[in-house]
Amino acid sequence: MNLLRAWLGGIPAYLWSGWGAVASLFLLFAAWEGASAVYGALILPDPATVFATLAGLIESGAAWPELAVTARRALTGLALAIAAGSVLGMLAGVSLTASMMARPLVTVLLGTPPIAWLVLAMLWFGASDGTPVFTVFVACFPVIFVGALQGTRTLDSHLKDMAAVFRLPARMKLFDLYLPHVVSYLFPAWITALGTAWKVVVMAELLSSADGVGAALAVSRSHLDTAATLAWISAVVGSLLAVEYLLLEPIKRELERWRQNER
Amino acid sequence: MNAEHTHAPRLEVRGLSHAYALKTVLDAVDLTLEAGRVLALVGPSGCGKTTLLHLCAGLLTRQSGTLANGFRRPAVMFQQPRLLPWKTTRDNIAIGLKAAGVQRGERLARADAIGQTVGLDALALGQFPHALSGGMQSRAALARALVLAPDLLLMDEPFAALDIGLKGQLHRLLLEHQAERGLAVLMITHDLMEAIRLADTVLVMAAEPGRIVHRFTLPTPARRRDDAAVYRTTAELLQVPAVRASFGLEAAAAGISDGSVLPLHATPHAGDAPAAPRKKGHSC
Fold it and tell me: What is the chain B residue with the closest CA to A157?
C-alpha cells in the first residue's frame, strides 16, 4: 500500500524529470524525418504519416485487440519466466554446487537463438498461444535466472553470519536478508527480460500466429505498406516504454531508496 | 544445552583445537567464563582469536576438544557493525527481537529505549545505516546486541575502528550495562590496554598455532580502575616475556623495566602518572 502511494505520488516529479528523455526521443524523430526526406515515403515514411496511420488503426479499433493479444502472450511468458527464473535462480545461488552446475546450462540457454526455440515451439505447440508464450519464456528465463543467481551469491557472508548469530528464522532470512539484496539484481534483469519479451513475442507471432501485432506486421509487409509497418512498430515500442518507465522504474526507485543519499 | 544452566551458567572450553585444511589455527585452548565476568582475549593479528570466538558463537563447527556453552541468550558484536543496509537503524537494532517473535510495537519501543541509552537520537534511529558515521554504526551494533538482554556477549574487536573518545564512551556504556545485568563478556582485542580497562581476566594468545600463553586476573573491578591503574597494569603486563614474545616485541630492555615505557602520556592524575608506575596507589 505504501508502495502504491509512493508510486502515485512520485509520478509528477518523475515525469518532470523525464524531459531529457523526451528531448532525446524528439531528436530521434528529427533524424527519422530527415532520413525520410532523403529516401522517400515508400522506403521510410515520415513520422507524421506513421503516427497518423497509427491513430487511424487505433480509431478503427484494429489496434487494441492485436496489442492486447500480443501483450497477453508477452506478459504470460514473462510472468512464467520471472516466477521460475527468480525462484530457481535464488535456490541455485544458495548452493555453490548448484550454481556451478547451472552456469554452463545458462550459457547454453542464452546462446541458443530465440528463432531456434521458435522453430521447436512451432513443432511442439503448433499455431496456438503456446508457441509465442514458450518462446518468450525460454528467451527471458536465463536472463532472470542469472540475475537471481548473482544476487544470491553476492550477499555479504558477514551479513549471513550476523543472521545466524541473531537466530533469524528462515522466513526472516528470506524477506529481511536475501530478498532486499537480490531485488537490486533481479529488477534490472526483469527490465531486460521485459524488453526481450516484447521483441521475441512479435517475432514469434510474425512466423506462427494469425493474430497479434506480429501477424499484423506480416500482413502489412505483404501489402508493402511501410507506414502501417512502422505504425505497428511504434505501437509496440511505445507500449514497452510506457510499461518500463511508468511502472517498473518508479517501483525500482522506491525499493532502492536505502541506497540513495538524497530523498 | 545441558541441565546446569538454570543457575550460574558458564562457558567452558577444554582442549579446543581448530584447523583450516592443514593449517592449525587453534591448539588446545582452555578457558572458562563465569556469569557476570569479563574475559578478554588479547593477541596479535592472525592468532586465531576470531576463530575461537566464531566457535563459541556457533558459526564454525567444532573439530576437537569440548565446548560447553551454558548461557541461554548469547549475543555477538562483530568487528564491523554489519547492519542491514536496507533497514533503518531502529529496525536493525530490533532484528534480534523480531527473530525472537516480539511484536512490532514492543520491539521498536525497546529498540528506541536501548538506542537512547547508547546515544542514538530519534533522527539517527530513523535513518538508513549509510547515513550514519562509523561511530554511530558501532553504537547501533552494540544496541542490537544489548537489546536482547543477553547473558553472554561475544565481542570481536568491536571498538577497533573508533577514535579514542568514542571508544571510551562505548567502554563506559558497556561496563555500566555489564555491571547492571551481570552480563558475561568474552571480548577479543589486539589492544592490551583496552583489555585491561574492561576485563576481569586477560588471556594473552600467541600465533602459529593459536594458543594461550599467559593468564592474568585483575584484582579490582573494571569500574573502579582509573586511567593511571590501567596504564600501569598495561606496562606491567608488557614486561612479561611471554606477552612480549606473542606480540613479536623484543625482549624487555633495562630502561623499559624501569617503568619509563610510556613517557608520552601526559599526567592524567598528577601524582599517579604512568611515569611512576611502581608507586602503589589505591588499586591493585
Answer: B82
Contact between B38 and B185 (Cβ < 8 Å): yes
Residue with cell 550460574: B8
A263 in B contact zone (CB under 8 Å):
no
ipTM value for the complex:
0.74
CATH number of this structure's domain A64-258, picked from the four choices 1.10.3720.10, 3.20.20.70, 1.25.40.10, 3.30.70.1450: 1.10.3720.10
Residue B172 and residue B141 in contact, taking contact as beta carbons nearer than 8 Å: no
Helical H segments across A209-248, by residue range? 213-222, 226-242
Question: Reduced to 3 states, what is the DSSP secondary structure of residue B21?
Answer: coil
pLDDT tens-place string over residues B197-240: 888 888 888 888 888 888 888 888 877 788 888 888 888 888 88
A167 touches chain B (CB under 8 A): yes
Q: Which of A165, A176, A179, A187 to mutate to test the interface with B (most CBs of B within 10 A)?
A: A165
Beta bridge partners of B14: B66
A143 phi and psi, to 5 degrees?
-60, -45
Place of cell 543457575: B7
- Cβ B99–A158 below 8 Å, yes or no? no
State which residue of chain B sits closest to A172, comparing Cα positions. B99
Give dist(CA A124, CA A117) in Å, integer. 10
Cell of B219: 584484582
